[in-house]
Amino acid sequence: MRRVDYMVGARDFKTIIAEQCMQDVVTYYQVEDTVDRLAGAMSECGFGSVPILAPDGKLVGIVSEFDLLKAVEEGKDLAKVTAGEIMTKDPITVGRNTSTMEIVHLLQERHLIRTPVVDADGKLVGVVSRRDIIAGYLRATKPVGGF
């Protein structure tokens, strides 16, 4: 669910934080999952990347389309390769209270499409994407209608 879809009323976009824009229902995988499983989900659901979690829910990596293409280019059998083998370790993340303006800067500077949102313990709580930020901007700047 994209939380910004439930935002009501105009507000200063610069006051919106990650927690208000992020998607909090996130498909994730674990290090031992095979890459063909991830690739199938990414392809079918249109995900550009998926978070990789440790059993305790902490984010340990991310597998992106770039990682998948690299594995294919290297001739790896995706049914025999695990997420842990190809994932990008220690991905760039933001916290729940990171401002949308900071996220915009991060996404632009690092050429990212999305970034995981983690809590103080490093556990995944959501993902915020460029599309979520744009939707948040449109919701925040839309005048409130009345009777």
What does this entry look like structurally?
The protein has one domain (3-141): CBS-domain. The protein is of the alpha/beta class and 147 residues long. Helix content is 35%, strand content 19%. Helix 2 links the parallel strand 1 (29-30) and strand 2. It starts with 17 loop residues before the first helix and ends in a 6-residue tail after the last helix. It has helices spanning 18-21, 35-45, 65-73, 83-86, 100-110, 130-141, and strands spanning 29-30, 49-53, 59-64, 88-89, 94-95, 114-118, 124-129.
In brief:
By secondary structure, this protein is an alpha/beta fold. The chain has a single domain (3-141), classed as CBS-domain (Roll). It has helices at 18-21, 35-45, 65-73, 83-86, 100-110, 130-141; strands at residues 29-30, 49-53, 59-64, 88-89, 94-95, 114-118, 124-129.
How do the helices and strands line up, and which of them pair or pack?
Elements: H1 18-21, E1 29-30, H2 35-45, E2 49-53, E3 59-64, H3 65-73, H4 83-86, E4 88-89, E5 94-95, H5 100-110, E6 114-118, E7 124-129, H6 130-141
Parallel strand pairs: 1-2, 5-6
Antiparallel strand pairs: 2-3, 3-4, 6-7
Descriptive labels:
four-stranded mixed beta sheet; CBS-domain; 147 residues; alpha/beta
Gyration radius (Cα, Å) is: 17 Å
- Tally of individual helices: 6
- The separation of the N and C termini measures 29 Å
Mean pLDDT: 89
User: Fraction of residues in helices?
Assistant: 25-40%
CATH class label: Alpha Beta
* SSE sequence, one letter per element: HEHEEHHEEHEEH
- For the record, the CATH architecture stands as Roll
State which percent range the strand residues make up.
15-25%
Shape: elongated
What topology, given as strand order, has the largest sheet? Answer: 1-2-3-4
What can be said about the biggest beta sheet? 4 strands, mixed
CATH topology heading: CBS-domain
Count of all domains:
1
